[in-house]
Amino acid sequence: MNADANPRLSSHFRMQWEDAQQAWVLLYPEGMVKLNASAAEILKRCDGSRDVPALVADLETAFDATGLEPDVRAFLDMARQQQWVA
Amino acid sequence: MTATDRPGPPLWLLAELTYRCPLHCAFCYNPVDFARTSAEDELDTEAWLRVLNEARALGSVQCGFSGGEPLVRDDLEVLVAEAHRLGYYTNLLTSGVGLTEDRAEALKRAGLDHIQLSFQDTTKELNDFLSHTRTFDLKQKVAHTIKANGWPMVMNCVIHRLNIDHIGEIIEMAVALGAEYLELANNQYYSWALLNRDQLLPSREQLERAERITNEYRAKLGDKLRIFFVVPDYYETRPKKCMNGWGNVFLTVTPDGTALPCHTAKMLPGLAFPNVREMSVGEIWYDSEGFNRYRGDGWMSDTCKTCPDKEKDLGGCRCQAFMLAGDAAAPDPVCDKSPAHQVVLDAVARAQQPGAVTTAPLVFRDPKASRQIAP
Ligand code: SF4
Ligand code: SF4
């Protein structure tokens, strides 16, 4: 798999905000993962419209930060392994 | 439980819509006295809609529709649509009987997220034997319908002594049907399966062979098919953390509206479980005696209370403790520290004999058998 392909949340997962848990969650057949804030920000941007460098740039602008790329890539590797992201 | 550890929300709502079912599985998890609940006793559409709304307001987010066979209810589409509108992730647990193309399309339009298709075995003969009906061709048709509607293909097969030696064929079949997830769930010995335990509990040799074959397929198939293999807890020395803790995340509502922390808990004596006809889901979850009884560790026997592992399994399953040790507050007898552990060892020892363990006939789950057992 090309690590630079535009990441997109798999159609078998649904991400939504849960008030009762005060968190974004990832829902899938008979299961749920509670996301921390940074995971949620990355996944929100996995809509297939941007590649990894653009995703990183977008996050860095939104949070006024730099040097996020290694963390984003590490998270996406894990997310691909879990099949959250294709 | 102390006043300060207020439990979190019931994240998981299991709506057991009906006990009616066209099949007669010898391992059925419905209570053996299910025939006491007739179709007229079932909650109506309006009551279910209220339950869905109240639970969602508390924070329930996974919603399972099961039974019996939930497709027997002709308001299933209405309930799924409301659950979807409320923001639940909706799961249908079905044997596939009744899932015509029309109903599948209607459920898709209603927003159903996932179907778990259960099947008994790949060998038609054995399958028909175990469920007492000729349903296997149908399962294949249903599998295609599920794929055609774009649902993830999730299969569940209950594994036991009589089909465990076909594990390779079962996996092959799942691959052929395009399954993405396959749960090989070893039978748990409750309800009907407990009645049939001697016939259904596999030997250690059978189990080890099945795990070995499963691992070979995992290595071969990789991500194409994710296989979950659930070992029967009788072969463990520590119990499972049942339902992830009593009244912790799971809420089951039975066909007649009784609310339970787990779908088998109704068997426990001396506990009044509330009914959604009389109490709101919030009162049931946070305030009812039935839900509070086994929260925390105040109820535990000294064996568990003083045990360093108590956070890991919370003393195991209350129903199993009641069924095998005669006391719902005892340690789960699967635990080798339990004074009643011998009961489990004896059942396991009997299972090591080759061939059929007993000449007693299998008891198939049907209303007549249910009325005989629990008039
Ligand atoms: S286990 Fe079998 S008999 Fe029991 S509800 Fe499910 S399909 Fe019906
Ligand atoms: S003694 Fe009780 S708490 Fe300890 S491992 Fe056994 S069942 Fe679990």
From TrEMBL, chain A:
Pathway of action: Cofactor biosynthesis; pyrroloquinoline quinone biosynthesis
Gene coding for it: pqqD
Lineage of origin: Bacteria, Pseudomonadati, Pseudomonadota, Betaproteobacteria, Rhodocyclales
Organism from which the protein derives: Denitromonas halophila
UniProt keyword Thylakoid present: no
InterPro entries with a match to the protein in the record: PQQD (IPR008792), PqqD_bac (IPR022479), PqqD_sf (IPR041881)
Biological processes per GO annotation: pyrroloquinoline quinone biosynthetic process
Protein keywords: PQQ biosynthesis
Protein name, as recorded: Pyrroloquinoline quinone biosynthesis peptide chaperone PqqD
Pfam families reported in the protein's UniProt record: PqqD
Subunit comment: Monomer. Interacts with PqqE.
One GO MF term: quinone binding
From TrEMBL, chain B:
UniProt KW keywords: 4Fe-4S, Iron, Iron-sulfur, Metal-binding, Oxidoreductase, PQQ biosynthesis, S-adenosyl-L-methionine
Domain spans labelled Radical SAM core: 7-223
Cofactor: [4Fe-4S] cluster
Molecular functions per Gene Ontology: 4 iron, 4 sulfur cluster binding; cyclase activity; iron ion binding; oxidoreductase activity; S-adenosyl-L-methionine binding
Positions contributing to [4Fe-4S] cluster binding: 21, 25, 28
InterPro entries assigned: 4Fe4S-binding_SPASM_dom, Aldolase_TIM, Elp3/MiaA/NifB-like_rSAM, PQQ_synth_PqqE_bac, PqqE-like, Radical_SAM_PqqE_MftC-like, rSAM, rSAM_sf
UniProt pathway: Cofactor biosynthesis; pyrroloquinoline quinone biosynthesis
Any single biological process term in GO: pyrroloquinoline quinone biosynthetic process
EC number assigned by the record: 1.21.98.4
Details of cofactor binding: Binds 1 [4Fe-4S] cluster. The cluster is coordinated with 3 cysteines and an exchangeable S-adenosyl-L-methionine.
Positions of transmembrane segments: none
CDD domains, alphabetized: Radical_SAM, SPASM_PqqE
Pfam families linked: Radical_SAM, SPASM
Catalytic activity: [PQQ precursor protein] + S-adenosyl-L-methionine = E-Y cross-linked-[PQQ precursor protein] + 5'-deoxyadenosine + L-methionine + H(+)
Role, per record: Catalyzes the cross-linking of a glutamate residue and a tyrosine residue in the PqqA protein as part of the biosynthesis of pyrroloquinoline quinone (PQQ).
Family statement drawn from the similarity comment of this UniProt entry: Belongs to the radical SAM superfamily. PqqE family.
Xref: NCBIfam families: PQQ_syn_pqqE (TIGR02109), rSAM_more_4Fe4S (TIGR04085)
Quaternary data: Interacts with PqqD. The interaction is necessary for activity of PqqE.
Protein's name according to its UniProt entry: PqqA peptide cyclase
